């Protein structure tokens, strides 16, 4: 008795013996090899293309002969004539196994494709879409065995796709009979596989549908709403777009929005309407950019902080404004997009990631999904800086999270010359330690301010103020140049030896740029600016340090800065200020918009949803407001970089001048600090 | 070692031993005894009242002593003072077992109460409601273990009611935080237990809700919509109401509505809007009658024929107008009532029974649920007469069903003096076999027309026409009196010897009533009237006979007439016409509105839904249109009572005169019949 032919699939390495004449697709399915198919093996969708390899395979102890697969049949010939098959390719549903063979499944034929992420350290996303297309051939009605058209569609899905139960709503029922007859009892069904306990029919196309379907990954921030439009077949981002959150007119920061809801009877509803309207504007915009029908957007994932979460869902955020900061719901939500008044495909779904705690929202969960501290071998501190900083510390054994109220200083608010990061804003600063003279860069121009071309290059934008990353660098450079002491006091011209240190009431300010000659602003860093940044960074550091206490460590292996702000902070300057714990500088990296990336992962990978839901339940939540040591850490962290903690890695790179400008006369910095807490 | 006390519950007979001190409710739950509770054993809802029995129980070999249960505790005393406990009653959650005891669970303390049906032969309905109230005490939020309020509600339902998973929609999320705080973390939750794979939270009340909740059983007919409003706690019908189907303006019968949809682009949508609007009118009306808020109506069950089913759901009935009569869906449907635009509780559910086939709808399924042919020991034929007759034949071994196109003659349409059953319509007829003189009754008057008081009693309504049951009796009486022959020809005055047989074109008519002296109509039974009834009854009989062929029988054990029309037909007269197969007259009964009763069963008993869904799948569907023998049976059944079948039971009761009025001149009856088929 001769053995059945052996089939080895690459890259999976899955192998098995099948009777001669077995189609490659059938073998792949039986072995669980990831080989795509929309038409279910009828030779019309071409998704199951494979590449047989011929010759000697010493590794497998196998010789593959030229006749290992069946010859081209008519279906393949017709397909090749009409659409063209790449050289060497076969249709997996048509080619049958004749002798031992090695078959490669190219990436585009895999359902679970790898979506490559740009950052080197990031893991790729495995495509595992929630919405899939299934071509079916449906039995015609039979008077002797009368069943509904829907019941025969269900039977076809069960028989041809092994999907035993599906849901269909009234809209689908209303379209079903026409679609079936128009398609000659052949239709393509879009199924949502994460809509509930059973897959749900979202759409019907007569015949084989070969077009694209799309999904949205949305990062709903207090200030901006940003969205990526993804092709759900490939995982590719086809357009990205953003919009100011229209809720800004009700309050710049979260707490002012919560109070707007408290003070105005319809306040919460107005803000809900505003954010949903903003979403729809954004979705129209992004669909226009990509040149697609927005009705082809069938899934959407949202990440946001708890207040935005509640307002987006239409829940009054009242309870989030006061202890114990109770969320209406913390679990992930699977909703109909239309219940959120979103104008997408009529059956489009919305998925909201779980919230971690009353101050640590679905955006933090998305960061956890993207940066995966729970899978990290080394101990990683992840900091997402915004009005609140969400902080996570952990490794694969244990993850902790907290939120810390940094306030809006890092976003340029509460800073005398502060502004949002926009063209004309100073974003990089250097101060010569000898001359105490600064040079800087503004957003929209690559030149330093000392460059002869700088004035011309910035003529249009002007030099309008200083953004968050700019103020961080300015103060850190001032500390390194000996213009500000460890307690945060700016020295006088006499103390520092530079006329740029000018009197400013009872304290001093450092003149960064005088644009008055050109009719522009005078940009200084004032002592209250330094105080504001001290408060903000002390809150951030104290939160991180608290998690380190809880974890029982004094150092972390690496630091990840998440968020748009994190992407623009210089690690060295952040460490000079003591914003983040001491670590080797090359171990401080930026993850960019990790929350948005997390949303994209949850959009493209159904399994990732379940994973992050389980992970979030495991994360230990620390509430800084009720932790006694938070106050102690905060006070220590008010100093630049810190009154209590050593920064040995920083010391290897930077020597901070041991200056002190406290003359005993100007004590208001210390008093203010005490009053504020 | 002494044994634990023995507890015997009646009427269930369930028994078990429990440690002294076990609350009665706990023991009942562990034994699976049906003892109600809304508050979950906190002594506030009083639903778990039980009646201990004392003394000798020879049957159980048990003596119950006075101290078998604990003494009254404070909770019981307080409850008795405030609300009063019936003598001998105890609260099952407070009274604890001390010694052997026999405990009766009175009907009002059972969840699964029996709802008594009026007819002697009908089985009672077991209450097993889809919507149940659950009082819970919810953990307060804890900053150290931050979870959402919803998640703690879910945990409470799991811990206090053993309901592991529930769904909640956005509306519930929006109300949750306020309700919890208003109720001091105690709320009553209404759960729908038949909404999908998981129970769904429909409503939240702060604290303990002790009010009623309601459901609707709706029989959506082509002509009328009838609804029963039921108290879901007791199963009682608290109001019943009906309304003309507003779709009548688009066509009297189903096929004219299907053609309206075919001929007018928005026709189907208009009819959908009309029937939904009619429903809402009816629901307002019925809630008004019962004096309840319609927002307390939380569940609704609908039964209807396939065309009404599709139009109600918003599905174009086009396919139902032509072979193969394909339904868009045949399975039972569980929907949100709001998706059908019904103005009930915002989270109210709608349940539609399954359809049996393209012509045999959810109304027939409801009849099957009510009359349960699949549970019958003897062979029962169930006939629901309307524009289509739905016919079921079977017993517990096998059930068959078909529909037969009787047309609207039984409803008084196509009859010269025909009218709907309304006051003034002749509904009963007797003809003296000697004098050939008639007497009759009209709807709204109990007197025969020969009564001296009759004219006065009917002065207000008048004598306006003849309804469906009236025409049946009239023609049957004419047949018995020798005025019409077996072929359906009415004799002339000369042939019959009565001047009431008057010439009417080429045929004759029988003068039933001449109201012209009082300005009223002349009411005759014409030969075309007889022909119309012949066609209708032949279709009905042929359908029944076809099922008997399929089942391989020539006789049935009993006949059930369902529907409003069936309730008014005299079995004897129906059998004289040969509408139904021959059977002992006392074996022909009326089930009243069996479809409506089926709807009520499905409303009150969740398990009945699953049962009828399974039953419908088992029913063998026969399509009369493609059965060759149907035509043969139809032709035979055109005769009065039948040209081929013997009617031995009928012959024992009635002797039909052997007359023939065919003179060879008037053959149009025969020709017409051939043309028609």
Automatic annotation (TrEMBL), chains A, B:
Q: Which GO terms fall under molecular function for this chain's record? A: iron-sulfur cluster binding
The family database entries (Pfam families) matched by this protein are listed as:
Fer2 (PF00111), RACo_C_ter (PF14574), RACo_linker (PF17650), Raco_middle (PF17651)
What InterPro entries does the annotation carry?
2Fe-2S_ferredoxin-like_sf, 2Fe-2S_ferredoxin-type, Beta-grasp_dom_sf, Corrinoid_activation_enz, Raco-like_middle, Raco-like_middle_sf, RACo_C, RACo_linker
Q: Where is the 2Fe-2S ferredoxin-type domain?
A: 5-109
Protein name, per record: Uncharacterized 2Fe-2 and 4Fe-4S clusters-containing protein, contains DUF4445 domain
Organism (species): Poseidonocella sedimentorum
